Amino acid sequence: MSTIEQLHGVFARAFEIPVEAVNDELEYQAIAEWDSMSHLVLVEELESTYNISIEMEDILEMGSVTKIKDILKKYGFEIN
C-alpha cells in the first residue's frame, strides 16, 4: 500500500465514505461527512495510523487533504 493510499484509507474510515471519494481537493465542511465531530475522529485515525500525537495547533490547521499532507510531513511522514 502506498502512502497516499494509506492516507486516503484514514479519511475513508474517519468519514465513512468510499476511498474513491478522497482526493487532494477534499476540504473541511466541503462534504457533509466532514464536520467538527468527524474532524476529531479523523485526528484519532491519523494518530493511530501514524503512531503520533498531533499538536492542537496542527489540529486546528487541518482544513484539507493537502494541508494534512503538509502537517504529516512535519511529523516525519512523506505522503506521495
Automatic annotation (TrEMBL):
Q: Where is the Carrier domain?
A: 6-68
What InterPro entries has UniProt attached to this entry?
Answer: ACP-like_sf (IPR036736), PP-bd_ACP (IPR009081)
Q: Which Pfam families match?
A: PP-binding
Which interval of the chain is the signal sequence?
none
What is the recorded name of this protein?
Acyl carrier protein
Species name: Flavobacterium psychroterrae
